[in-house]
Protein backbone atom coordinates (compact mmCIF):
# COMPACT_ATOMS: atom_id res chain seq x y z
CA UNK A 1 0.00 0.00 0.00
CA UNK A 2 3.05 2.19 0.36
CA UNK A 3 3.13 3.05 -3.36
CA UNK A 4 -0.44 4.43 -3.14
CA UNK A 5 0.48 6.90 -0.41
CA UNK A 6 -1.79 5.25 2.15
CA UNK A 7 -0.89 6.46 5.62
CA UNK A 8 -1.07 4.42 8.80
CA UNK A 9 -4.59 4.57 10.21
CA UNK A 10 -6.07 5.68 6.90
CA UNK A 11 -8.96 3.69 5.49
CA UNK A 12 -8.64 1.87 2.21
CA UNK A 13 -10.49 -0.86 0.36
CA UNK A 14 -9.49 -3.28 -2.34
CA UNK A 15 -11.10 -5.58 -4.84
CA UNK A 16 -9.52 -8.30 -6.95
CA UNK A 17 -10.70 -8.48 -10.55
CA UNK A 18 -9.12 -10.73 -13.17
CA UNK A 19 -6.23 -11.62 -10.82
CA UNK A 20 -5.34 -7.96 -10.25
CA UNK A 21 -5.85 -6.15 -6.95
CA UNK A 22 -7.23 -2.61 -7.19
CA UNK A 23 -6.79 -0.44 -4.08
CA UNK A 24 -8.93 2.61 -3.28
CA UNK A 25 -8.49 5.31 -0.69
CA UNK A 26 -11.05 7.89 0.34
CA UNK A 27 -11.65 10.37 -2.48
CA UNK A 28 -9.19 8.37 -4.58
CA UNK A 29 -8.07 10.24 -7.66
CA UNK A 30 -5.24 8.10 -9.02
CA UNK A 31 -7.00 5.05 -10.45
CA UNK A 32 -6.81 4.93 -14.28
CA UNK A 33 -10.62 4.46 -14.43
CA UNK A 34 -11.28 7.32 -12.03
CA UNK A 35 -13.75 9.17 -14.26
CA UNK A 36 -15.87 6.08 -14.90
CA UNK A 37 -15.79 5.10 -11.23
CA UNK A 38 -16.94 8.54 -10.11
CA UNK A 39 -19.69 8.65 -12.76
CA UNK A 40 -20.92 5.21 -11.68
CA UNK A 41 -20.90 6.23 -8.01
CA UNK A 42 -22.82 9.41 -8.79
CA UNK A 43 -25.42 7.40 -10.72
CA UNK A 44 -25.76 4.86 -7.90
CA UNK A 45 -25.96 7.64 -5.31
CA UNK A 46 -28.90 9.24 -7.12
CA UNK A 47 -30.65 5.88 -7.50
CA UNK A 48 -30.32 4.86 -3.84
CA UNK A 49 -31.51 8.27 -2.67
CA UNK A 50 -34.60 7.88 -4.89
CA UNK A 51 -35.57 4.71 -3.02
CA UNK A 52 -35.07 6.16 0.45
CA UNK A 53 -31.37 6.25 1.33
CA UNK A 54 -30.47 9.25 3.49
CA UNK A 55 -26.73 9.97 3.81
CA UNK A 56 -25.50 9.99 7.41
CA UNK A 57 -23.69 13.33 7.32
CA UNK A 58 -23.26 13.12 11.10
CA UNK A 59 -20.49 10.59 10.28
CA UNK A 60 -18.42 13.42 8.78
CA UNK A 61 -16.52 15.20 11.53
CA UNK A 62 -15.30 18.10 9.38
CA UNK A 63 -16.95 21.50 9.74
CA UNK A 64 -18.08 21.85 6.12
CA UNK A 65 -21.37 22.39 4.27
CA UNK A 66 -23.85 19.50 4.08
CA UNK A 67 -23.30 19.13 0.30
CA UNK A 68 -19.55 18.75 0.88
CA UNK A 69 -20.17 16.18 3.62
CA UNK A 70 -22.39 14.20 1.26
CA UNK A 71 -19.73 14.32 -1.48
CA UNK A 72 -17.14 13.10 1.04
CA UNK A 73 -19.37 10.17 2.02
CA UNK A 74 -20.02 9.27 -1.62
CA UNK A 75 -16.28 8.86 -2.16
CA UNK A 76 -15.46 6.49 0.71
CA UNK A 77 -13.09 3.76 -0.36
CA UNK A 78 -15.54 0.84 -0.21
CA UNK A 79 -18.08 2.73 -2.33
CA UNK A 80 -15.42 3.48 -4.95
CA UNK A 81 -14.33 -0.18 -4.92
CA UNK A 82 -17.96 -1.24 -5.43
CA UNK A 83 -18.44 1.22 -8.31
CA UNK A 84 -15.25 -0.10 -9.92
CA UNK A 85 -16.45 -3.68 -9.44
CA UNK A 86 -19.80 -2.92 -11.04
CA UNK A 87 -18.09 -1.44 -14.09
CA UNK A 88 -15.63 -4.32 -14.49
CA UNK A 89 -17.58 -7.49 -13.71
CA UNK A 90 -20.49 -9.23 -15.44
CA UNK A 91 -24.03 -8.53 -14.23
CA UNK A 92 -25.38 -10.82 -11.52
CA UNK A 93 -21.93 -11.69 -10.19
CA UNK A 94 -21.00 -11.27 -6.54
CA UNK A 95 -18.67 -8.41 -5.61
CA UNK A 96 -16.08 -9.09 -2.90
CA UNK A 97 -14.55 -6.05 -1.24
CA UNK A 98 -11.91 -5.99 1.50
CA UNK A 99 -11.60 -3.06 3.93
CA UNK A 100 -8.75 -2.47 6.38
CA UNK A 101 -10.93 -0.64 8.92
CA UNK A 102 -14.46 -1.09 10.16
CA UNK A 103 -17.14 -0.02 7.67
CA UNK A 104 -18.81 3.25 8.75
CA UNK A 105 -22.54 3.67 9.44
CA UNK A 106 -23.13 5.54 6.19
CA UNK A 107 -21.34 2.97 4.04
CA UNK A 108 -23.15 0.09 5.71
CA UNK A 109 -26.54 1.70 5.07
CA UNK A 110 -25.59 2.73 1.52
CA UNK A 111 -24.33 -0.74 0.56
CA UNK A 112 -27.64 -2.27 1.67
CA UNK A 113 -29.41 0.08 -0.75
CA UNK A 114 -26.80 -0.49 -3.47
CA UNK A 115 -27.28 -4.26 -3.28
CA UNK A 116 -30.98 -3.74 -3.84
CA UNK A 117 -30.59 -1.27 -6.73
CA UNK A 118 -27.97 -3.27 -8.64
CA UNK A 119 -29.44 -6.69 -7.86
CA UNK A 120 -26.14 -8.15 -6.73
CA UNK A 121 -24.72 -9.74 -3.66
CA UNK A 122 -21.92 -7.61 -2.22
CA UNK A 123 -19.60 -9.12 0.35
CA UNK A 124 -17.52 -6.70 2.39
CA UNK A 125 -14.86 -8.01 4.73
CA UNK A 126 -13.99 -5.25 7.17
CA UNK A 127 -11.73 -5.31 10.25
CA UNK A 128 -14.49 -6.92 12.31
CA UNK A 129 -16.50 -9.33 10.15
CA UNK A 130 -17.90 -10.37 6.81
CA UNK A 131 -20.98 -8.47 5.68
CA UNK A 132 -23.13 -10.22 3.05
CA UNK A 133 -25.37 -7.59 1.48
CA UNK A 134 -28.23 -8.88 -0.66
CA UNK A 135 -31.61 -7.43 -1.65
CA UNK A 136 -31.18 -4.50 0.74
CA UNK A 137 -30.28 -6.60 3.79
CA UNK A 138 -27.02 -7.42 5.57
CA UNK A 139 -26.12 -10.72 7.20
CA UNK A 140 -25.04 -8.88 10.35
CA UNK A 141 -28.62 -7.66 10.83
CA UNK A 142 -27.20 -4.18 11.42
CA UNK A 143 -25.13 -5.35 14.36
CA UNK A 144 -21.68 -4.46 13.23
TrEMBL record:
Pfam families: DYW_deaminase. InterPro entries: DYW_dom. Residues 52-144 form the DYW domain. It comes from the Eukaryota. One of its GO terms (molecular function) is zinc ion binding. Belongs to the PPR family. PCMP-H subfamily. This is DYW domain-containing protein. It comes from Rubus argutus.
Amino acid sequence: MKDRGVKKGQGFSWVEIQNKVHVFGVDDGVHPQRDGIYKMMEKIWKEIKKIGFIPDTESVLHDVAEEVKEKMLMHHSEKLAIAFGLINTPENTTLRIMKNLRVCNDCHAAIKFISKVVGREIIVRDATRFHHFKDGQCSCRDYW
